[in-house]
Amino acid sequence: xxxxxxxxxxxxxxxxxxIKSSLxxxxxxxxxxxxxxxxxxxxxxxQNFLIDKVHQNYPEAKILAEENGYNELxxxxxxxxxIDPIDGTLNxxxxxxxxxxxxxxYEEGRSKLGFxxxxxxxxxxxxxxxxxxxxxxxxxxxxxxxxxxxxxxGMNAHMYLxxxxxxxxxxxxSMGVRMSGCAGIELIAVIKGARVAYLTNLSPWDYAAGCxxxxxxxxxxxxIDGQSLSFNGREHFVAGxxxxxxxxxGML
Amino acid sequence: xxxxxxxxxxxxxxxxxxIKSSLxxxxxxxxxxxxxxxxxxxxxxxQNFLIDKVHQNYPEAKILAEENGYNELxxxxxxxxxIDPIDGTLNxxxxxxxxxxxxxxYEEGRSKLGFxxxxxxxxxxxxxxxxxxxxxxxxxxxxxxxxxxxxxxGMNAHMYLxxxxxxxxxxxxSMGVRMSGCAGIELIAVIKGARVAYLTNLSPWDYAAGCxxxxxxxxxxxxIDGQSLSFNGREHFVAGxxxxxxxxxGML
Lengths: 252, 252
Fold this sequence. Notes:
homodimer; 252 residues; alpha+beta; Fructose-1,6-Bisphosphatase, Chain A, domain 1
């Protein structure tokens, strides 16, 4: 197991190096569903790199990933790698920072390990049930179980603007609303205790790694109606400390 | 002049060291106007440290600063140091990151030099008319003059929620809305080209340093009605690339 963790960490560090060395090169950028939903040659290149690593080392594992026809899976049975090659592509293109590479490992639908790599900060957060949570080599303590009223919340701009699922009341009850444009950064913030919650709308590759790490701390997450995540299509998503999560579910 | 720049940079690095070495100590936290408007012993300590440095080195200069009775000035005549000891106090308390120390130097109401120190990233952005813009020792190029439609915008949560001054239409026209809870971080993002604009509600110590740096690139800023900033009380504030600024003013 330790070997598997080291192996996946190395994939991510190598993928990060590829991105860093590409930053001065011209990107090839395509629009997907809208002018703000982008994919670049680097998203595809990093996804292919990580898929090759999975195929070489875990030939029987299944893959669920954001780009290029890997974005649906009929079932989460067996061993599944869930991959987001660049989470926060808009930030990657426009800011050249505030994006992550994410890998989640699931067995029979249950989280085993999660990895979120904030490339430009060179911080790789990883962990899983029974393994604890780490930033690079350093183990993190479980953050205090703060209430919604005691902390900041990461929020989806569209849900906040249109007050979906009481998003405005939830924001008001918190100490303040933050929007980074990157699920990995928001989930890292909850994992390290910088924020108490995250309310948004995500695809499986956006939440798989983060949920596996949250499981190490027994922090809570679900669909916004309290049901389990389906790992199939976009879902309204809520995560947080046990106290903040319960408060939010109680308001919905 | 070079000596003055080196001197003020050293004040900021020293102030940052004080904050870093205090991070594990218990903070003394008081509420100002509301439960989310906080001041800590470190805000006061850093302000006193910087005020002492100004008094020692520039005994004739005036001071405008956030805490403790320095927050009003009848006129910007002469030499004025505008100081925000901790910009983003809520982030400082809750996140232990994403806050800045800021110093702006004005002469007869005209910007001369600005310094924004993102303490936990150890990035000190500084510059002024005729001096260029730097991050620590490295000179930065002027970012491309992108339009609002081509970039991200930093946005005040309250203005966005209540659609003050067309904030929602402005956000929609941009590539996306970001909220960091720290004026310094938003202004740094505009200065380095990561965002094209910032729409918010600020006090003089929140904008003085950033505006002095924006002047080095001839980027634009003003009150939201296009009038000059008064350096007296909170004002609705807009800043950005020349193109993005003009588009926003045209929408207001």
